[in-house]
Each structure stands twice: as C-alpha cells, then as structure tokens.
Design a protein that fits this description.
Largest sheet: 2 strands, antiparallel
Number of domains: 3
Mean pLDDT: 91
Helix content: 40-55%
Structural class: mainly alpha
Order of helices and strands: EEHHHHHHHHHHHH
Distance between the termini: 79 Å
Number of helices: 12
Radius of gyration: 33 Å
CATH architecture of the largest domain: Orthogonal Bundle
Length: 291
C-alpha cells in the first residue's frame, strides 16, 4: 500500500501502514486546532509584555501595566476589614456572655469561629476541640491554667512555653535519677488510685506511694492531687489525662517528664479573633454537653 492510496470510506489518503487489515489514515490536523494554537501563542506574547511574567535572578519582569496581585489582595483584605470594623470593635468591647446573648454577634461567631479554629487550633486539639494524646481537650472542665474567658484569652495571647515575653511556663521535671524505677511505679499506682483507676490495691504499697507523692509531687499538684492552675499543673484526681493514665504512660511521664508547648497567637490573631475563638470554645463545650 502506498501513501497515494485513499480510504474508500472517508476519502482520506493513507500512510501506507496496515495492521491486520486496519489501515492508518493520513488525516490533517483540523484548522480549528491551528487557530487555537495561534491565538494561545499570541495571548502569551501579549501577556508577557503586559503582566508580570519572567523570573530573574533577583527580581521578575513587572509588565507595562504594573499589576501586582499581592497589592490587590492586600487592598481587598483592607476593604474587608473596614467592612467588619463595627462588629469587630463590639467583639473586643463586650464580654463573652454578652456576645453570646447578642443574636447578631452570636451568628458571626457561628460563621467565623469554625474557620478560625480549623485554621489555627484543630491540628492539635482536634476538629471539635476533643484533644488527643499530648494535646488537652478544650471541651471539658480540666483546664491547666483555668477555663474562664479571661484566662483563655490570655493563654491564646501569650501561649505556653512559647517565645512571647509574657508566655506561661510549665514543665514537669524528669524523675529519672531522682526516684528508682520501682519507686516510680509505686507513685504511679498511687496517682492512679487518686483518679479511681484500678491499680495495685496493696495498702502498704499505696501508703508508700502517697509518701513519695507528698515528697516529690504535692508541691505542684497539691496534697490531694487536684492540681494548681497558677502553675499549669494538671489535676491528677479526675478522669482526664493529657498523655494517658495507663501504667506505661504514667511511668514514662514520671521518668522522663513532660513539657507541652502552645504558640502565642498575639502576632497572628488580633484581639477580636481571639475573643471569637474564646466564645466558640464555650459553644463547643455546651454542644458537647447536650450530646
């Protein structure tokens, strides 16, 4: 078969290739495709001249129109913030209960709170603030530094063990070398007994654990183990655990110590945003209580 042969059905010339009776046609590229390619190239040439396009070593071509998308975004953000100025000022001026009692402001919190929480908090504390291993729940009553609105606002502002000059500092020391391995297990059993976890019920062992607790732990966690919000020391007598209350986790906690970290949000979130988050946390807690 030669190139000059034509397919009897379509009238197109063939390429001369044939496979098992199937003939390859030598069809032309449609003119519409050529026009599309031509227009695309023309647009690219025009765009290169008018708009920012080519990167350089230290800069890029700006284009004769002088368009800067970063400036455009900043202008849109400024317009958006100006349009929200009134209610954001109200958020700052009112307390949490007043905001929740105002239907308009409560609706704003319901609309903006999930996005703020999702963007800044959910990665550690969970989608609904339920927490997880190493990250405290935000929808219960077990708060390291206190769960009242003013304290939450301050924690959001300065963080915990962060680089903020006013940050809250909290660290549990490692007792490796201070207590022996069996002593650590003994005091861990006693701590479990404070929260009602079934552990070694030998009265002599629990008495020994209590003495170890009083000598090494009570100064931060209190004689009754209920914690101290002034120090960020957690309550050990409830059923809420940040790292876990099982034998192995408690042993690791006492042996190696713990030092949580939370960033300070003052540089990223303004006071209105932090107030919205505080109100939203209260809403999450109430929502969980009704489930």
């Amino acid at each position: 078969m030669t190139v000059k042969d034509r397919d009897p059905l379509t009238g197109h010339k063939t390429t001369g290739h044939e496979w098992n009776g199937i003939t390859e046609l030598n069809t032309r590229v449609p003119k519409s495709i050529w026009w599309f390619i031509l227009v695309s190239h023309l647009y690219a040439l025009i765009a290169w001249v008018l708009l920012p396009a080519w990167p350089g070593i230290n800069d890029y071509t700006k284009g004769i129109l002088g368009i800067d998308q970063r400036d455009q975004v900043e202008q849109k953000v400024a317009v958006m913030r100006e349009s929200r100025a009134d209610w954001r000022e109200q958020m700052v001026a009112l307390d949490v209960d007043e905001i929740r009692a105002d239907p308009a402001l409560a609706a704003i919190v319901a609309g903006t709170g999930p996005a703020l929480f999702g963007d800044n908090c959910a990665a550690c504390h969970g989608t609904f603030g339920q927490g997880g291993p190493g990250y405290p729940s935000l929808v219960d009553d077990a708060w390291l530094w206190g769960g009242d609105p003013d304290t939450i606002m301050e924690t959001l502002r300065v963080g915990i063990n962060a680089d903020h000059p006013d940050t809250r500092f909290a660290q549990m020391m490692a007792f490796d070398g201070v207590l022996g391995r069996d002593e650590i297990r003994t005091v861990a059993n006693y701590v479990q007994s404070l929260s009602g976890i079934e552990s070694d019920s030998d009265p002599d062992r629990l008495a020994a654990g209590e003495k170890l607790f009083m000598d090494n732990c009570a100064s931060c966690h209190g004689d009754d183990g209920t914690g101290n919000t002034d120090l960020g020391a957690p309550n050990l007598a409830d059923d809420q655990w940040i790292y876990g209350g099982d034998d192995q986790t408690l042993f690791t906690t006492i042996l190696k110590g713990r030092e949580g970290w939370m960033p300070a949000w003052e540089g990223r979130l303004d006071e209105a945003d932090r107030k919205i988050l505080t109100v939203y946390l209260r809403d999450l807690k109430d929502r969980k209580a009704t489930q």
